[in-house]
Amino acid sequence: MTTPDFPAPVEDPDSTPYWDSLREHALQLPYCTACGRFFFYPRTICPRCHAAGVEWRPASGRGVIYSYTVVRRAPSPAFAADVPYTVALADLDEGCRIVARVVPADAALVAVGSPVQVDYHDITDSVTLPVLRLRAAGSTA
């Protein structure tokens, strides 16, 4: 995933704290101070209660796979060397969902309910993407 034509994520003012935390190999998520819940994707108001009291808080990054797919046809030349790879929707312990590539790449190891931990993949010096690392059932790491 280090191809020069790799499509970099679009960072905007609402998502800058998220991308900054990933570059530091940490995960921060938006948190609503009115209803007390994390949410994702980043935005200026809570998607549940519509309050504007949003702050960024550290998140554990632990969760389980809700759904997944194995990508067998590259969506662009930047991904051609990586196929096949697995992309999953994960329910984080914080109560929100994220989408990320699963590592290791062996799709036979992935199942709905598999425990995962957010990890970090440095694409360039300025772009870090989250990945979901499979972890042993019952593991806290």
Task: Give a verbal description of the structure.
It contains one helix and eight strands. It is mostly beta strands and 141 residues long. The chain has two domains: 49 residues, no CATH class; 77 residues, OB fold (Dihydrolipoamide Acetyltransferase, E2P), CATH 2.40.50. The strands form two sheets. It has a five-stranded mixed barrel. Strands 2-1-3 form a three-stranded antiparallel beta sheet. The longest helix is centred in the N-terminal third of the chain and has 8 residues. It starts with 15 loop residues before the first helix and ends in a 7-residue tail after the last strand. The mean pLDDT is 92.
Layout of SSEs?
Blueprint: H1 16-23, E1 28-32, E2 37-38, E3 54-58, E4 62-71, E5 85-92, E6 97-103, E7 115-122, E8 128-134
Parallel strand pairs: 6-8
Antiparallel strand pairs: 1-2, 1-3, 4-5, 4-7, 5-6, 7-8
Name the helix and strand elements from N-terminus to C-terminus, one letter apiece.
HEEEEEEEE
Mean pLDDT: 92
Shape, please? globular
Which percent range describes the beta-strand content? 35-45%
Second-tier CATH architecture of the largest domain? Beta Barrel
Query: What is the gyration radius calculated from CA atoms?
Result: 16 Å
Distance between the termini: 25 Å
